[in-house]
Automatic annotation (TrEMBL):
CDD domains: Glyco_tranf_GTA_type. It comes from viral metagenome. This is Glycosyltransferase.
Length: 258
């Protein structure tokens, strides 16, 4: 039977984003806090944990991220090094790309294993294009379809990693269109990912800005007229977060006091 080594790459630092966002010490500390309280907890709660967590850190905050005491399952990385993959003894290598403040259903990695890793025979791609977006500022939970998926996995025969120039361009440089041009792409149903959005996030959705400028009355009217909008009250948010491995989620939510 073919063997597969699975890497989960988590993007932490804003150096990987082109958006004009803060890069100060407060920002990176809050970023680490979100990762540890939310994403890491949802990853550690996975029903299938046979993967390595590679935390992709930028060099701007290298001193901070190197000094931080990370969980034993987290391996900080400051480059897309070829050696990490070519040193593997597996026949196939799977790389799942996620962000540092997204939440994953307990069976998300089991889905990857079931759909890709069990019977790999070529390059394949598994994506979650349908997700839930949790607006952390306005406490809005809404379904979203993303052209650039918030969660995807590429699986390659190990031999492809030997041609590093090709692989780097194919996987890392073109990852924003992951799955868009591959006939081998398989999309999984919605409800497996929550994309959290807030004022310290790498990403930012317009709904935050729109609602922040509205009066309370205008906001209520907007939410009634917006078919995808839904208020996430304490009970709803708590239940949903529990499904992603985050118990007592409302109390543990680091932005609650903001």
């Amino acid at each position: 039977m073919k063997t597969v080594e699975h890497f989960v790459q988590v993007y932490l630092d804003c150096e990987f984003s082109r958006l004009p966002l803060p890069k100060d010490e407060e920002w990176i500390q809050k970023r680490i806090e979100v990762f540890e309280r939310l994403t890491l907890r949802s990853l550690k709660a996975q029903t299938l944990s046979d993967f390595k967590i590679i935390l992709l850190c930028g060099r701007t905050h290298k001193k901070t991220t190197m000094a931080h005491k990370w969980d034993a399952q987290v391996f900080p990385s400051y480059s897309f090094g070829r050696d990490r993959f070519t040193a593997s003894k597996a026949d196939y290598i799977a790389i799942t790309r996620i962000d540092s403040d997204d939440l994953y259903h307990r069976e998300a990695m089991a889905d990857v294993h079931q759909n890709l890793i069990c019977t790999p025979n070529r390059r394949e791609c598994l994506i979650f294009r349908h997700a839930m977006t949790w607006d952390m500022i306005n406490k809005i939970l809404t379904p979203r379809h993303r052209r650039s998926p918030p969660f995807y996995t590429h699986i390659y025969p190990r031999a492809m990693y030997m041609d590093w120039k090709r692989f780097r361009a194919d996987h890392f440089t073109g990852h924003g269109r992951a799955g868009g041009r591959l006939p081998e792409t398989k999309e999984l149903p919605e409800g497996r990912v929550i994309v959290t959005k807030g004022d310290w996030n790498i990403g930012y959705i317009k709904r935050n800005v729109i609602l922040e400028k509205m009066t309370k009355e205008a906001r209520a009217k907007y939410l009634v007229e917006e078919p995808l909008g839904a208020i996430g009250d304490k009970k709803t948010i708590t239940e949903i977060l529990a499904g992603f491995g985050i118990e007592n989620g409302w109390e543990a939510y680091p932005w609650k006091k903001r």
